[in-house]
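Aim 2, interim progress. The first record below pairs a target sequence with its structure tokens.
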Amino acid sequence: MLQTLTERLFDDSDRTDLDPFAVFEEWFALAKEAEANDPHAMALASVDGEGMPDVRMVLLNSRDARGFCFFTNFESEKGKQLLAQPKAAMVMHWKSLRRQVRMRGPVEVVSPEEADAYFASRPRGSQIASSASEQSRPVASREALLTRVAEISAEIGEDAVVRPMHWSGFRLVPESIEFWKDGEFRLHDRVRFVRDGDGWSSARLYP
């Protein structure tokens, strides 16, 4: 009988050549069915110039064999931090499944074509908000923000919204990917994959 990738993941005799990206896709498909809110939500950690860690919730917007992408204002705190210190960690926790995935590695800026394509897929209101928001910086009031949105909307009219130059994306290129599944009496299942040349090595971890 064929095993699921998850069964292979936690079968200590059969993890050879298992692709962590494929396991992620199996888990993410389950999360999209099970999570009441947003299965794309993830906590993203970076550090500032003094080494102080910072963390916030963002959305996983796209992914492929290269890594996991999210988009943001590059003039925001996280944008500035990641441009200066291009390394990050992320965790996706799906409470309904009692599972989580952790990743760490360098980040790279996505291509302009990738940024344009994702920006074009966003609702028009979100596109305008990307131009109106000076993310992470003080604003006098919510009314001031809404006024700025209205001004930009009037300036654009019916024209297409052009992606702001300060708005683009990062790709986290994982050097490690860890899968965690809840277990009775806190005897959780944990398997970590670490890049090993062109492939991956894996090990079960104590919970």
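The second target in this work package is listed in the same format:
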Amino acid sequence: MPKTQFPPSITSRPVYGELEARSGGGHLMIADAEGAEAILDLAKSVDQGFWAKAHIIYIPKTTGTKYSSQLEELGAGQYYAGPSYEAAQGRIRRALQDCHMGTQVYLSGTESLMGQAMAEATAAGIPHTAIQTEHRGSTARRMQCVHCKGITEDVTTDPFECSHCGLSLFVRDHYSRRLAAFQGVRVDAEDPGNIPEKVELFK
């Protein structure tokens, strides 16, 4: 699956690139679902010495073991596969705390995964210049309701119902890097009950 091409948007919306191998004292790779494909593509251009210094943290989600086995075969110094971001969060934080000067961080997969991992990496003091991102797979969004502050994962329609307060929210491109989430605003705030029909925009 090729990397996703997003249409031009507002300044706060993240822009993603393409992973490339860089020299460094270590290589921390965090991916979910089809994000594994970006790591496997990168693997075509590096030798085993690169992988000896690599730590892969992978969250398969709905992809089963297909990519898990391929990632394991790369021979990374450390490899972990977890059922969810929440399950892997402790390991991600420890890995970031253990990073030495010059460690390179590679994030690939969904915006939810990359946004959350990016926030953890910057909080741990990793410079932006040492972090790469590449979008692969689902374009479903992680949304925050600006009214109740609740987070709804995997939003695919516009509008959508907040999973916390039940309001119908408009999907905006405004993005909070601190929260790793797009912002949703009540669609019928000025005309209660006038809610547009849902349209599937993300898959």
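The chain is about 25% helix and 30% strand. This observation will shape the mutagenesis plan for the next reporting period.
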